[in-house]
Design goal:
The protein has about 120 residues and is α/β, with parallel strands linked by helices. It has one domain. Helix content is about 30%, strand content about 15%. It contains 4 helices and 5 strands. The strands form 2 sheets. Strands 1-4-5 form a 3-stranded parallel sheet, with no helix packed on it. A two-stranded antiparallel sheet has the order 2-3. Strand 4, helix 3 and strand 5 form a beta-alpha-beta unit. About 5% of the residues have low confidence. The chain binds iron/sulfur cluster. Iron/sulfur cluster binds next to helix 1.
Length: about 120
C-alpha cells in the first residue's frame, strides 16, 4: 500500500520541554527556505483547508500520516476544523467498495488529549 502525508494545518506553539527539538519546527524552517507553499510564516500555526480534499482525489489505497508538520490539537484550531480532519480520514474513496485510506496522527501529549476530550464533551 502507498504511503503519503497530508498537512491540513502547519505550525505549532511549543508547550513543554518535549518540544525543544521539534522535528516539525526544523522542517518548517527548511521548507520556508526553499519556498514551499504553506511555510511562508515559518512555524506559525496556519490552517490549510484546501488540503482536506487531497486524499479524496487519490485513486490508490494509501496510508496517510495526517498533520506531521503541525499540532492539530492546538488550542487555536477550532473544534469544527478538527472534526473535518477526522471526517477526511473516515470517508472511503468514492467508487470503491472498501475503505482504502488509513490515517495516523501525532498528539501533543496527554495534556492535549485531555483538553480535546473536554472540548468533545462540551460540543453537542
Ligand atoms: S506539540 Fe509537537 S508539533 Fe507542537 S511544538 Fe511541540 S513537538 Fe512540535
Amino acid at each position: 500500500m502507498d504511503r503519503a502525508d497530508v498537512e491540513p494545518s502547519v505550525g505549532c506553539t511549543k508547550i513543554s520541554p518535549g518540544c525543544k527539538n521539534c522535528y516539525a519546527e526544523t522542517m518548517a524552517k527548511r521548507l520556508r527556505g526553499i519556498g514551499v507553499r504553506g511555510y511562508e510564516n515559518g512555524f506559525r500555526l496556519q490552517l490549510m483547508p484546501e488540503r482536506l480534499a487531497e486524499p479524496l482525489e487519490r485513486r490508490k489505497p494509501t496510508v496517510y500520516f495526517v498533520n506531521s508538520m503541525s499540532g492539530l490539537f492546538h488550542e487555536k484550531v477550532p473544534f469544527e476544523y478538527i472534526a473535518q480532519v477526522f471526517e477526511m480520514m473516515r470517508r472511503p474513496m468514492s467508487g470503491l467498495a472498501y475503505p482504502s485510506r488509513t490515517g495516523s496522527m501525532a498528539f501533543r501529549g496527554s495534556m492535549c488529549c485531555e483538553a480535546l476530550m473536554g472540548r468533545f464533551a462540551s460540543y453537542r
